[in-house]
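Predict both folds.
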Amino acid sequence: MHLTVIAAAFLCTAPFVLASMPRGVLAFAGPLLAGSLSALIIAGPTDHWFEISLLIVYSFVFPFGLRQHARVFRERVQALIRLDEKNQWIRLFLNDFETNSTDWLWRTDNGHRIVMLSPTFEMRAGLAPQMIADLSIAEFVRRFVTTDPHKAEISIKTFQSGKAFRDVVVRVTIEGKTRWWELSGTPNTSHSGAFLGFHGIGRDVTARIDAERQLRHFAHHDALTGGKNRAAFRASLDAAARRSAEGVSNTVVLIDLDRFKQVNDTAGHAVGDEVLREAFRRLQMAMPNGATVARVGGDEFAAIVPNVPVASAVRAAERAIAAISMPIVLPSGQFSIGASSGVAAMPDMGCDPSTILRLADAALYGAKEAGKGGVQIATNRQVEALAFRARLNADLVAAIANGAFHLEYQPVVDAAGQTVALEAFMRWNHNELGSIKPREFLALAEQSGAFEALGRFAIETACSLAATLPDRISISVNLSARQFLSAELRRFVVGCLARHRLRSGRLELEIGEAVMAVPEGAAAVAEFRNAGVAVVLDDFGAGSSSFTTLCDAPFSKVKIDRELVSRVDNDEKARKSVQGILALGQSLGLQVSAEGVETAQTAQFLRESACPVMQGFYFAAPMPAADLPAWLLANTVAKPESSLAAA
């Protein structure tokens, strides 16, 4: 019995003692099991059937239990190995973090007292650890965080909430220097959920905050003068408009420099920049306290003067103009410029910022037109003009769609008085305002983009009329520079000529010299000429017209400016200029046309100067398409002299 008990004890304890060696357990327990069974059988199976039964059951259960116990043991050992490796990696990463990162680690206890800081804290944060060790979060904030009390209390509540927080930026003052810290923290809790404190990461973000502040400064300040820029001025104007809507007066002053271009042209842009800086400084000095002063363009400045009568703002503008007009002495020399100003008041002229700016700009334009160097106040007449333009702009697109526009045609005659061409003029009969002058709606159409639709309408309508006229009569249509340079227009013109079965020479496109100011202008003229469409240079002799313009592009015809033609009766220089243009056109093989002929004396001079074609009110005013057949018939049948008299 003693041996049986000892054998059973060995068999039961072997899997636990030798669990790390399953084969060793089998090698130890197998002979014990076999020997015990053999001894009990020899001693008498009848007397020891119970013990034999237990050993047999054990022999079947033992391998499964051993395997399970060995597996659990193995997994536990492997888990401990992995945990140890993980701890080694964590220690490695933390050491690397402490060595190379700009961040630091921190931890608090459940009373929110700082109990741990990275060894590199002093180097990273610029503050000795002993200065904040054992401080509570509230004490730390109140001692080092320099912000308004309300924000300080919000920071304290954030830290004391017991909830995770991320990227909380605080401003701290260390030895009189301002620094910015960014803190993130995660709460530590026990298995029961009790709060044990925070652990987290901090970093010094002073450089980033300074860079962001600098970017914000550049976004709202002019790099040249250091004052506010256009964007900041517009934001200030919007705020002033809101205050004016509540009855607070604000006056917008626009100031544009006179003769500044001469400084750039003669002394260079570097000197021009110095002049701009000095002009801006003088403008700031002249404006009253509280005024917002900005540079809104190349040599254009603006100011918002709050809480003063308009007369006071005007006097401030006059002081600024007087100061700017004083000689500016620089190391590179002495320079004299001037300035003009336009003033618009809120709420007297309304409270819409865009409208106020347009009014001030219109007043500035009026001041320049009046001789420069003065101040002009926006008037109710200008307000009405802006309202009129706004209504026209709103009705423009609908008018195009509803067919409110039509064309009138002015005949172009040769020296014998016979009609050789027609020039198309756009007309708008407003359903309420009546006939609108072209100069009033064409500028709006150009600004709004509706000019392209008007141009297509004019070309289509002109081609439709040309198809009903004799083949010798062509029709010309005026185009803006932007529309003429459009590749889509060239395709439209070719398609329009094909639809109306017109030879390309029957359509002439009139453009101003502004087209040649862009590099692709000459190429666009050449493309139309290659397609057989005549291109006419309009208003030659006005502005910057030059011989180079005629040589750079293959124009079909040149039209002498109407203002120059109108002066030939009384101006010898105008007569010589016209004769020079006619001679130039003849030498270059260009047809020259004179427009603006209003007297018999002018017509006679042009005939004697060998001008091939002419147009003007002396011959005929622009007329609707319905009146053309009768006029053409009378003009063709009658003699030139009687025809002219009748016209």
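Second protein follows, with its predicted structure tokens after the sequence.
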Amino acid sequence: MNNNNPKHSSQTIARLVATIMPIQILTLATSCFNSIIDGAVGSNFIGEEAMTAIGIYTPLQLICAAFNLILLGGSQVLCGRYIGEGRMEGTKSVFSINMTLVVIFTGLITALSFVMPYQMALALGAAESADGVAMYIIGRGVGVIPLLMAQQYASFLQIERQDKRNYVALVSMLGSNIVLDLLFAAVFKMGLLGLGIATSLSNWVFCFIVGSYFFTKKAMLKFSLKSANWKDLGLLFNIGFPGATLILCTAVRSVIINRSLARYAGMAAVAALATQTLIHTLYSSVPTGIAGTMRMIGSVSYGEEDRASLLTLLKIIIKRSFIVVGIEAVLSFVIAVPIARFYYHDTSSEIYGMVVTGLRACAIYLIPLAVTLIFSYYYQATGKNALSNFFSFLQGFLLVTVIAVPLMPSMGIDAVWLAMIGNSLIACVIIVIVTIAHNKRFVKNAEDWLILPSGYGVSEEDRLVLILHDKDNIASTFEKVADFCKRYGVDEEKVTGLTGALASLAGNIIRESFDEAKDKNSIDISLFHKDNVLTIRLKGDNLSYSAENREESVKRVDMMTHFKKFRENSSSVEYSNMLGLNVLTIKYDLDNAVSAGANS
């Protein structure tokens, strides 16, 4: 059925959320499994000092992750733009710049890990355990280069549509880490050095599997310094930096908290916090993945000035977060004891009790954490970077530090657990305050949470939403498109050119990429009129027109015909692709059209 039906739009958004969200969560979860494996093997075969070393090393790991996120975020956006423009040379340039920066940065970290590991351990807050931490830093130093390279390769494999290779690489990395950890720590008794080397070797396995593809003939992307356009460097960092703010703040916070804990509660408390952090990182991948889905889809809806879709998306995301994260919170509270016992067999020990309390505290603040992350990422998606960075600083550094450090002399590690709960609750309260301040009144309805400017968006009278499910309705669908265009004065010749090209393109997509056995295939067609500019947008996740074959698609005669017609009959044509979501946007400036008509 093809009509201006909000229910269809809601179903489309819900389906998109259901497709993207699991991938977001899984990607985040797999990134922390190695540390969890290290912690489990280390605590059982080496002792508490293993968890202490992992906890001390965490800030350095977070700094590497922040740099990684800057490159990933900037590269994905720039590559999406270049792919949309049919400029594969631009994508190859970004790939080459990206990998060059990774080698330089990780080479520096590796060199420091070998030349001055003891000094690094002290700087990270190791205190009396500096010797052991230094050995762990040396072991992990072997694997810094392959880990960040592999994570970048894995991201570019999505452009190449090699998702299976990513899954094989992740499973191989985790399997090899388990085997090597047990071999080096339990059999060869290599201590913290062996624990670090085991993880590093598993990183090399990961890197080899994902990276080897780019040396095959099938790969579109090839490393070449000659192809690198270094003018993109500033833009890459500018785009990617906001995503790293929270991690950078958390890294600084970790150093401060670790130092304070070592002073007031002892190294057992540092080890307990490290254990809780490992499990929290895994748990938080769920709310963070949900929030990442909000940012990804929300940025598209915001660019479309589609207030209704933003509101629908926010409702769906909030509802699913309460269900999914709520179940996760209950389960994590229940299994806190067996998880703690898995790491520490002596249930009478002080550290065991610390870990149980910390894991239960984590369960308590998971839901408010999810709410804070969703809104923080929503602010980023809607162009409120300052507000998003403020919440990253607030949540990642300020609140926990301000609450925990003054209370630590009297409460010990319990001050940290209290601070983490208070951190998320206070952040939620601040979201309410920000919303009230923007609207200059108390919240009256769901739309108030969008905190959008009064002139943002398009009225329902100036907007048309159509959902195309099959080829049988192409003609009737584009008749409605034509009627909408004519309503705003577009002459019939141009309307015929535009709608004819769109109908032909839609027919190709349906014929080549729709699965007849499924009833979930669809192309979203939206039109809106604002400031005397008519915008037509086609959106879908059909693989046959996805990123990796875009270069070939535009060379085809029928595709060239479509895009030629679009350019002849409109003011601008833009194509973008992100993780399989294809968006074709056509804009028609009615003022220029009138002027041209008058001059002729």
